[in-house]
Amino acid sequence: MLTVKQIEAAYWIATLGSFEAAARKLHTSQTAISKRIQELETGFGVPIFDRSRRTARLTAKGEEVVRLGRDLLDARNRIVDCLNGQEREARRLHFGITELTAQTWLPAFVQAMRARYPNVTLAPTVDTSVNLLGRLSDSSIELIVTPDFPQDAAIAKVPLQQVMNAWMCHPDLLDTSRLVPLAEIARYPLLTLGPMSFTSSAVIRWFEAHNVAPGDCMSSNSNVALCGLAVSGLGLAYLPLHYFHDLVDTGLLAVVRSTPRLPKIRYVAAYRNDGPTRFYDAVAQLARRCCDFSARSTSAQMRRPRGG
């Protein structure tokens, strides 16, 4: 028979990366966690985790189970919160986001938080992903939404949407009607968010994985600033495709199709395991439901700088 404890075990193993970390999180033994997973797999004759790997890796069916299980656990947490009166508790939530979230689905998230937790005061910080992770680690921020980062046993992560970035430039900078080899892209000035961004780190690793060293790079902590540099013809900007597609449609920017293709960037909601994790996980699940990087929190005119 399927139980909430089995789903909970699978969820936390997938979130924290190991059976041991899940056992610590759930205040039980690793043997008990293993037994829950074994009962789940045996009961339905379906493997949830791939045991041929050294780390806990979900099978395809396991990913589906955990995805559906998040909704089950979220509903369970909401019932518990309701019975405990947690939704009426007055408190302040310090959370961190990067620029892209602030420019897209933050209003939907704020509206959802106010509806579910009317007595929680939201205290957001907008910063680079590296700085936000540092503040999460030193507990000056309780929850962050950033591009994914390496697993840390002290931090739980809830996966959100993936973002498709693209190289963009002024249409006169190069011929964008063809696939452009990576080595050719590397010869142009590259406009990225810089070393304090996990997104930029991912694209640098992408170059390294294909044995190509990028040349000149210019960086900014703002996608809007990078967009302005690209529109000015100063190089190839690495930008979120959906957010700036209107500038492509109007001819101010052109998309450079590269070979090999750029990787998608997975975002996560992350929080420490040593706080009120039931509340944090409920907030992270709310972020998962609100997450939509194709949304707009500002008009196109507001996004375009007018000076200053």
Automatic annotation (TrEMBL):
It holds the Pfam family LysR_substrate. InterPro entries: LysR_HTH_N, LysR_subst-bd, WH-like_DNA-bd_sf, WH_DNA-bd_sf. One of its GO terms (molecular function) is transcription cis-regulatory region binding. Residues 2-59 form the HTH lysR-type domain. Keywords: DNA-binding, Transcription, Transcription regulation. The keyword Lyase does not apply. The keyword Plastid does not apply. Belongs to the LysR transcriptional regulatory family. This is HTH-type transcriptional activator CmpR. The gene is cmpR_4.
